Amino acid sequence: MDYQATYALWQQQPNLDPEVKRSLAQMANDEEQKEMAFAAPMSFGTAGMRGVLGAGIGRMNVYTVAQATEGLAQFMMTLSEEKRAQGVVISYDSRYQSQEFAYTSASVLGAHGIKSYVFDSLRPTPELSFAVRYLKTYAGIMITASHNPKQYNGYKIYGEDGAQMAPEESDMITGYIRKVPDLFAIEQVAVQDLRAQKLLTIIGEDIDEAYYDQIRTVTINSDLVKTVGKNMKLIYTPLHGTGRIPAQLALRNAGFEDFRLVPEQSVADPEFPTVPFPNPEFTQAFDMAIELGKEDHAEILIATDPDADRLGTAVWTGDHYQLLTGNQIASLLLHYILEARKQAGTLPKNGAVVKSIVSTELATAIAQDYDVDMINVETGFKFIGDQIKHYEATGEHEFLFGFEESYGYLIKPFVRDKDAIQSTVLLAEVAAYYKSKNQTLWDGIQALYQQYGYFEEKTISVDFEGIDGASEMADLMTKFRTNQPTAFAGHAIKRVEDYQLQTATDDDGAVSPIDMPVSNVLKYILDDGTWIAIRPSGTEPKVKFYVGTSAENLDAASKKLDQFEADLAAFRQN
């Protein structure tokens, strides 16, 4: 069936959801939008699905959400009765239709006799991960589009360990989703009937308190917070998302008192009216915090994204606020954790830090200095969660810290996804530590560069919008595989790691296996230690290029980055 026929089929449905009906009318004379919405179903990967809100099989709406949940329910029906009885916990963020999607999911699960636990109002993603573990449910559903613009929403499934669903289970769920014959005939049970049948439990403050109790354990040096952190000036913004209440409580519980919220951005508003993108890695997200910071002479500004799993920061350098990269934040957190554990005599002999393969090697240098293993995993925090689960089962390592360059960090594994609430508390403590030395976090990262080397990284995103975007992304990856480059910016490639083929090929032709899950990622190791990685985004229509290098100083490292970026662009366009 072509997109026009599918569009017509949706138009013919009686009792259509009002939002879907409105969206259908809006695209009536827009063939491009129709094609994008109706030509192909939304992809459902290991990170779930994420897309523009609106009518269509390729959009986020009550019908595609019901379809995804039907797939989960069908999968759970293959499990033992005991497993099914564990149920599913559901949370949602501040985006349009998030609460509606949450209750749609509960209604579909209830039609299969599967119990759901739904939060009474919006909550951050890390608390959903915690709730799965705390309530011992079989799965979790988080309705969120993370840091995407306001037009988006998304749907993520978590496994019973609290991490995003493992690829094996996720692939099986995808198979069931694709087999749903009719999106408009998925059985649902009304919420009132679910309550009467005890198939829906509303949860809230009880889970909050248990989560906050665990957040209290993140603080390493409470005396430092009470003496220095208590009076340290801090500005926090939740960027119109879920972080306002938990971040405030977490900071107060830790002992921080002199902090202010950006008032205009503390309202949970799905329009995100004060920022073009609610993404804490972008300078614009800090514009209002910087104004308030200058007024208060604040030492540190912290922003979390709408579902409070990512954190960004801007720090005072002496004459302006400087945004730190995700890699810099992670390096500061890691160094503080390891040094504090060393000083306390609690640094384990089998300690391990886990990071993604596209994250900074500065963290590796820090870990090696403390005789701690650095474990590299593929991009996706679920792979960090997998390592934690493995360590718990085998005792092979003690987890100390996990991070991705994309502004996601995990300090304590009572959560199995990136947690910006934990990170807010610990980063504030690290700022207090440097303040106790009459330094700032900016001084701190410079000191790490002086001690371990000047590492610089950059992520370059190339957008592929439109109906042909997916095929164009695939063609680009094919180009790099079939027309293999031999050098970038005058530096020879010494090793090519292809995570789709699961092979590593050295420049002498020697081939060795890569023991990681299959993933569409290429990574090049150059003769000067620079690395370049290429991967299509799993949640957005873009291909990401990552470059990591080092040099004798930051200026030299930055110049090298520029050269590699230019050479990558030239190769891509030829």
Task: Kindly summarize this structure in a few lines.
Helix 1 crosses helix 3 and helix 4 runs parallel beside helix 6. The protein contains 20 helices and 23 strands. With about 575 residues, the chain is of the alpha/beta class.
Report on this model:
GO terms for molecular function: magnesium ion binding; phosphoglucomutase activity; phosphopentomutase activity. This is phosphoglucomutase (alpha-D-glucose-1,6-bisphosphate-dependent). With 574 residues, this protein is α/β, with parallel strands linked by helices. It folds into three domains: 3-203, Alpha-D-Glucose-1,6-Bisphosphate, subunit A, domain 3 (Alpha-D-Glucose-1,6-Bisphosphate, Chain A, domain 3); 212-452, Alpha-D-Glucose-1,6-Bisphosphate, Chain A, domain 3 (3-Layer(aba) Sandwich), CATH 3.40.120; 454-573, Alpha-D-phosphohexomutase, C-terminal domain (TATA-Binding Protein), CATH 3.30.310.50. The protein is 40% helix and 21% strand. The protein contains 20 helices and 23 strands. The strands form four sheets. Strands 16, 17, 18, 19, 20, 21, 22 and 23 form an eight-stranded antiparallel beta sheet that branches. β12, α15 (362-369) and β13 (373-377) form a beta-alpha-beta unit. α4 packs parallel to α6 (98-111) and α14 (326-344) crosses α18 (441-452). The radius of gyration is 24 Å and the shape is globular. It starts with a helix and ends with a helix.
